[in-house]
Amino acid sequence: MFSVDTIRIFKPDPNIYQLVVDQLGCDPQEILFFSSNAWDVSGSATFGSQAVWANRFGQAPERLPGNPVLEIKILDSVLQYFL
């Protein structure tokens, strides 16, 4: 579990996503990041992670930088794309 409490800043600040990279010792593109918030997907994708938008309610895409690698409605549907 990772917490922004340790660095006292909040998403979508890039330092939040860097915290995870540092803790895991990996490259951003090795991270599959899930969120139901478009702004969070944007922040993660812009940082370089593989962002998945869990668009559970069929929201219209927002005009934000960065694009998700996948948009899903339910979490287990990701298995058909990454297995």
Notable traits:
3 strands, Rossmann fold, single chain, 3 helices, alpha/beta, 30% helix, 83 residues
What would you say about this model in short?
The chain is of the alpha/beta class and 83 residues long. It has three helices and three strands, in the order αβαββα.
Q: How would you describe this structure to a colleague?
A:
With 83 residues, the protein is α/β, with parallel strands linked by helices. The protein has a single domain, classed as Rossmann fold (3-Layer(aba) Sandwich), CATH 3.40.50.1000. The chain has 3 helices and 3 strands. It has helices at residues 14-24, 38-47, 79-82; strands at residues 32-35, 50-54, 70-72. The chain has a 3-stranded parallel beta sheet, covered by helices on one side. Helix 2 (38-47) links the parallel strand 1 and strand 2 (50-54). The longest helix is centred in the N-terminal third of the chain and has 11 residues, at 14-24. The chain is globular and about 35 Å long. The two termini are 24 Å apart.
Show the helix and strand layout.
Layout: H1 14-24, E1 32-35, H2 38-47, E2 50-54, E3 70-72, H3 79-82
Parallel strand pairs: 1-2, 2-3
Radius of gyration (CA) equals 13 Å
Q: Can you tell me the CATH class? A: Alpha Beta
- Portion of residues in beta strands equals 5-15%
The major pleated sheet works out as: 3 strands, parallel
| Number of helical stretches of at least 4 residues | 3
The low-pLDDT segments are none
Distance between the termini: 24 Å
Order of helices and strands: HEHEEH
For CATH, the homologous superfamily is named as HAD superfamily/HAD-like
CATH topology annotation: Rossmann fold
Query: Helical residue percent?
Result: 25-40%
Number of domains: 1
Biggest sheet strand order reads 1-2-3
The CATH architecture assignment turns out to be 3-Layer(aba) Sandwich
